[in-house]
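Pipeline run #58 for the internal structure catalog. This entry was flagged by the ingest filter as a single-chain record with no existing model, so it goes straight to prediction. Upstream metadata was stripped on purpose; only the residue string is passed forward. Reviewer on rotation: M.T. Logging verbosity set to normal.
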Amino acid sequence: MSADGKIRCAWPGLENDELYQRYHDTEWGRPVTGEAELFERLSLEAFQSGLSWITILRKRESFRAAFSNFDPEKVAEFGPEDFERLMNDASIVRNRLKINATIGNARALLALPDGITLGSLIAQHTPAARAAGEPAPAHTPESKALAKALKKLGFAFVGPTTAYAMMQAIGVVNDHQHDCWLAGGTEPR
């Protein structure tokens, strides 16, 4: 139990960081709509791969500034000069593959066939709810299928674990621990 008397999932308490707890309490697992918002979450989850989430969370505003608030139309227009600018920006994670993937994913998002959106793709791959107390998986058959569908449509750096982490972050699944004050879904899920 934290100082405010609330029981939370274990992960935001690991760092004993107010930013982490605020993210858990006000954002993680809550519904996200809008292609730019979904694109941001997918991009940040890809950047997180191999790093701790708190590292990305602390750099989030810098990522937003560097990637034009994750506006897919603007990011899709990034060229070699933008790539070099990003590679020289110490306020973000400077990983060639992840930066290229983010730019390419913006282009893939804009090239989706008529009637298909990132939101609709995610909705088509929603996992079944887990039983109370069952540990959260790293990935599911649905996240594997989503990653495969995204890759087929030209997206990169979107493996099953990244896809599932995004599903958790945007409220597609409710993976709050059973004793967490948000486990009951105090917000629409």
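catalog note: The chain has one domain: 34-169.
catalog note: The CA atoms of residues 31 and 171 lie 5 Å apart.
status: ready for reviewer M.T.
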